[in-house]
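pasting for ref. prot 1 ->
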Amino acid sequence: MTDSKSQLKGTLILLTAALIWGSAFVAQEVGGGVGAFAMQGIRCLVGAAFLVPVTIVVDALKKKNGTYRKMTTDEVFDLVKYGIVCGAVMFIATNLQQLGINGGAEAGKAGFITAMYILFVPMIGIFQGKKSGWRLWVSVAAAIVGLYLLCVGDIGRIEQSDILVLACAVAFAAHITVIDMSVEHVDGVAVLALDDQNRVLTVTQFRYVFGKAMLELPAGKLEKGEDPAPA
């Protein structure tokens, strides 16, 4: 598959995910009468009902092509540990969102405010010593203007429901940060490739947070017990 076809496929997948995610706000607004926690519980059960069969099918396909590998005790422990932490943060985020919608935040407004987690993630990264480019601050300024127009507008104040949804966006950003931190505990391997003239081989990756393409060493995940040399 060519790079252009891969990019098109990835874009269509992301667009489909965005459509599904966006439509969920309408469902949350319509079905919010059952209560925030009940709504989120039903939502998670529906997600699990779809995810469990997918997991079974994926494992079956791996067994068929010989790529299946049983998880070790340490891997299961890490999965449970990080899963609990990520799940707790996700619980806070989704319920803050539903409480905000139940409190009067319209679906379109809730979707916009929640999407501000995209800005909060690199902002949290600043406190972790990560640098951010000027594009981040331009985006923050534009988001603040949009937030004012949506939330303040004619009423001249920010509603409590808006604050709850904004807190939800911060929680979602924290969720992504926690996932990023947990991935660091997974063994990885970086390849320092040299040619016959001792020149280092690097790859170019565009990093949105920095607003430019970065030179990086080729890298990938290393399974536990796997020899780094052939990997």
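and prot 2 ->
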Amino acid sequence: MEDEKELIALKMADLIVRQLNAELNASEEAGLQLWLDADPAHLALYEEMADKHSRGKALTDIKQYDVKAAFQRFESKIKTPSVKLWPRIAAAAAILLVVGLGVFFYTQRHLEGSGATRDLLANDIKPGGNKAYLVLSNGKRVSLTDAANGELAKEAGVEITKTADGQVVYATRGSDEESSD
């Protein structure tokens, strides 16, 4: 706080000297006038410096102050702590990397599917039409829609026939029992 007062006093002394030499602009003149009106001691200092006999003594006192050193002391007290930027950038990059990898693996897994899903899709039954088929024990497929009426197949003692009204009849050889489905 003492250094700040010292810095203000140096600035005001400079303004007073420049005012006495008629080197002030309007805004500096207004600032000096506010400072003079703020305290009677300020006005007394101004009048003392304005006195031609004491002007030389005041200038000698002002020159004794090392303005640069006073400003550096003042500036060192108001410095703000520096914030390191690289750790923040590294943290943001790590978060982006983790999120990006998560999204990548999540979408890859759902796009390709698991091995079991791929096997099921490869062996999936294709959509058919409005037809009926009978698959025999030897793997042969008989279209019931396209088959003519009469005997469809004979296999292992079973005779399969199609009647005129579209029913399929299973009959075993050597037996009179019939089963329809």
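Strands lie at 133-135, 141-143, 150-155, 158-162, 168-172, 178-180.
The chain is about 55% helix and 15% strand.
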